[in-house]
Write a structure and sequence with these properties.
alpha+beta; Rossmann fold; six-stranded antiparallel barrel; five-stranded mixed beta sheet; elongated
Length: 223
């Protein structure tokens, strides 16, 4: 199995340079343009390590920097910078200084290859389609709610198909048509997949923040 890394870098010369070196090292790589996309990427796939472009990280107005830091603590991480006039690619380990240059190939060989690939999934998801009313506010009228469906569900949360505008870490509520108890279930939006952003289904990954005991029991009858 090929070593696989997640590269966080905006499009441009730097990303192209990183990709060229990784290709020469026979490393499989997925790219995202913002640290805010890390949660979605790391739920969907397993990786041996993370490469973080420093300028991309600096320019990002991250929605939850603490969560990103916690994610990075679970993987080998190399912060990288590209400057064609000063030696090309320079790598810095977590906590290192600008003087602690690290070779990208060395990082892949000594840290990523021995590291067992992992994701950040915490519970198995099931492909369950619930018909739901999705709302921005708990007291939103049904007529204003979005009529949509879940794509998959776990005991901790669900992915909901939507092309509407949502913000990571914002609250949401849903009413599940198949549940006997129609109390709105409180959600937190963990990540957003926007229409046209990539070749994938648009929607929001959410965690369950609160539900009634009866809803919890009924949820587990489907899982």
């Amino acid at each position: 199995m090929k070593t696989k890394v997640l590269l966080v870098a905006e499009g441009g010369f730097a990303r192209a340079a990183y990709m060229e070196v990784l290709h020469d090292l026979n490393v499989e790589v997925d790219c995202i343009a913002s640290p805010d996309e890390m949660t979605e990427a790391l739920i969907d796939a397993e990786y041996n390590g993370l490469l973080i472009d420093v300028p991309t990280m600096i320019r990002c107005d991250c929605a939850d920097k603490n969560r990103i830091t916690r994610i990075m603590d679970r993987f080998p991480v190399l912060r990288v910078m590209f400057n064609s006039d000063h030696g090309g690619i320079r790598g810095l380990t977590q906590g290192g200084t600008i003087r602690d240059n690290r070779d990208l190939g060395e990082f892949i060989l000594h840290e990523c290859v021995p590291f067992k690939p992992r994701s950040i999934r915490v519970a198995e998801r099931r492909d369950i389609v619930f018909n739901v009313l999705l709302m921005h506010e708990v007291d939103q009228e049904d007529i204003r709610a979005e009529r949509t469906v879940t794509v998959n569900v776990s005991e901790h949360g669900c992915f909901i198909y939507t092309v509407n505008q949502w913000t990571p870490y914002s609250p949401a509520w849903m009413v599940v048509h198949e549940f006997e108890d129609k109390t709105p279930i409180e959600l937190k939006v963990r990540w957003c997949g926007k229409w046209g952003q990539r070749m994938g289904m648009p929607g929001i990954g959410t965690s369950f923040e609160s539900m009634t005991a009866h809803q919890y029991v009924q949820l587990h009858t489907f899982l």
